[in-house]
Write a structure and sequence with these properties.
Elements (H helix, E strand, L loop, with lengths): L6 H22 L8 E7 L11 H16 L2 E6 L15 H11 L5 E5 L3 E3 L6 H5 L4 H4 L6 E3 L10 E6 L16 E6 L3 E10 L2 H10 L2 H4 L7 H11 L1 H4 L2 E3 L2 H4 L6 H6 L12 H4 L10 E3 L9 H12 L5 H12 L19
Parallel strand pairs: 1-2, 1-3, 7-9
Antiparallel strand pairs: 3-8, 4-10, 5-6, 7-8
Helix pairs in contact: 1-3, 2-14
Length: about 350
């Protein structure tokens, strides 16, 4: 017999497709939907950072008001509703969540995944501007930059000089519509999937089908789904040449150290007017779109303080956008009822 399916695999598949149908049912009746971009966040029922009060409400305010401001759709997914067979951790669930989002938002061209431990710091900066053919080429890493990272049981960073960040030799001839996935890589651990954008199409369908291959899930890699993606990029030109690796501060900056945070060093949005050295940097500057607190929590209480500092330094959300996002939640117009109950439609009286 060529194929065998365990009861667990069948149950996971059934649960995933039932959730996709529920999402489709919810979003098909949304008025004002049909955006080209969907902002996605995911958590489990108890997911949080540290012991911050009203953490998820703040995250909702940050993400949903941004989506409302720029006319994007917004989805908060419940990780537990998207199991991956035999996956030892919930990291792998982002793959079926992305598949469900494409099914639930048929008008969407791009999905923007942003981890729970990230903040939109400059809400006036529209995400679709990053995607434009006039902006994106200037944000891509220089041609010939090697991919970084290691696929294996350790977290050591390795440069791969024979595997470059794109198959093009000159950004002036770069065919930006050919790019299907936009992400960043850092100098410590390589590519990072805390903030990335995926374009709808046959390539994305193929990638999402391959990404959770059972051999990858069972491999015991340190960075799990992140390592699986790096493996595909290293081994397959079809993957590598469709991925645009952008400068980290454009999409996935890390927090600066305390001294620089207190100075409030300006960056200038989309890295404009900055030196090449600073533009290549990993660390957030005022004016950058996102800060990602990757790895936050390794020291007891560190996340609470860092999150509070970065929250205080963000460009504040406009109150009309906050009210608009809250109104859409009250009317059930966001894809959050299928996600974590605490940020779904509020119960009345």
């Amino acid at each position: 017999m060529l194929f065998s399916f365990s009861p667990l695999r069948i149950l996971c598949a059934v649960l995933t497709w039932l959730t996709i149908l529920a999402l489709w049912s919810l979003t098909s009746s949304i008025s004002g939907g049909g955006s080209d971009i969907v902002v996605i966040i995911a958590s489990n029922d108890g997911g949080s950072i540290g012991k911050l009060p009203d953490f998820k409400e703040k995250v909702f305010r940050n993400r949903a008001s941004y989506a409302h401001r720029h006319g994007y759709d917004f989805l908060w997914a419940n990780i537990s509703a998207f199991p991956v067979p035999d996956a030892p951790t919930p990291h792998w669930s982002k793959v079926p969540i992305l598949q469900a989002a494409f099914a639930a938002y048929p008008s969407a061209t791009w999905l923007w995944w942003l981890d729970l431990d990230a903040l939109i710091m400059t809400p006036s900066l529209p995400f679709h501007e990053l995607l434009s053919p006039t902006t994106l080429p200037s944000l891509l890493l220089p041609p010939g930059t090697p991919l970084r990272g290691i696929v294996g049981p350790t977290a050591h960073n390795v440069s791969h000089p024979t595997r470059l960040v794109s198959g093009w030799e000159d950004t002036r001839t770069l065919d930006t519509p050919a790019l299907q996935l936009l992400l960043t890589q850092d100098e410590m651990f390589g590519i990072n999937t805390g903030s990335f954008a995926l374009r709808r199409g046959a390539w994305a369908d193929w990638l999402l089908d391959m990404w959770t291959d059972g051999a990858f899930v069972a491999a015991g890699w340190v960075f799990k789904e992140q390592d699986a993606l790096l493996h595909l990029m290293l081994q397959h030109a079809r993957v590598r040449d469709a991925v645009g690796v952008v400068r980290q501060r454009a999409l996935n900056a890390y927090p600066t150290d305390r001294d620089e945070r207190e100075k409030g060093v300006d960056g200038g949005g989309w890295l404009g007017g900055k030196s090449e050295e600073e533009a290549r940097g990993m660390m957030w500057r005022r004016g950058d779109l996102v800060v990602h607190l990757a790895g936050c929590g390794t020291v007891e209480g560190s996340c609470d303080a860092l999150w509070g500092e970065m929250w205080a330094q963000r460009e504040g959300e406009r109150e009309e956008d906050v009210r608009g996002a809250e109104g859409r939640r009250e009317r059930g117009e966001w894809g959050v009822e299928v996600g974590w109950e605490g940020v779904g439609r509020r119960r009345r009286g």
